[in-house]
Predict the structure.
Amino acid sequence: MRSFLNLILLFSLGSIIAAAQAAPKSSAPSRPAATSADHLPSEATVDAFLHQQFGYEPDLTWKIASIKPSPIDSLAEVTVVLANQQGQQMTRFYVSPDGERALVGEIIPFGAKPFDPVKKTLEKGITGPARGPKDSSVTIVEFGDLQCPACKAAQPTIEGLVEAEPNARFVFQNFPLEMHNWATKGAAYSDCVGRASTDAFWKFVAKTYETQNDITAENVDEKLTAIVDGVGLKGADIAACAAKPETKAHVDASIALGKSVDVTGTPTLFINGRRIGNVDPHLLDVYKSLADFAAKSQ
């Protein structure tokens, strides 16, 4: 799914660049850029743009997730969910104040210590189950969704990283995606399990991923309650906890934390604030090097 959508996005980016290069240059004096808040494209305009870009592909659908000012002054940030039979993927692009140009890609932090702001935000906000020394110089944070197939596929790599870095602290934060119909319920159960027993939590997550394909929106309570029983806790108690407003508040706070550090999909990892948005099993050695480098850079 990711490679298919990347091809589409690369095609779109090529079209955008070509259009920009072909556009006539104005001899008029430049004027100060207006703030993006004053020039956000309408949902109808974005939908029309997406139709022109992707309408030729009958199996591809999209949903506009947000239209808001971007971190860079004068640009509007548009986030969309693209989907086909293979799955779904969230992506974003940035629109110029005049509404005539767009950039596909991501805005990355810059500076002498580019990852420190996110690192500090996470240090203050993380509340999920953790493994490893509390005073570790390296903190690895995963934002995950128990219904997410990519999260399930990434777990061997993430576990490999945790095993290779025993001196690092690893924290799991719930980030259920709206596109998944039982992910929020899964997050509620995992929140309650994590607060009841850290050891049981990791077993619960592993078993939920293992049986992910058998869980549906209709049987999720039955399946997750049975998994909880299997990891040594009382399923009925956890089910009751999962239905409480305070549990929803915990999950919502975790989602808000993820959004504050630009999480748009799962799994997303942070190694001392450095964001890894696509966990690749072929890059385990790279992730180890990043963790080692982060420890030495303190």
Summary: Confidence is low (pLDDT under 50) at residues 1-36.
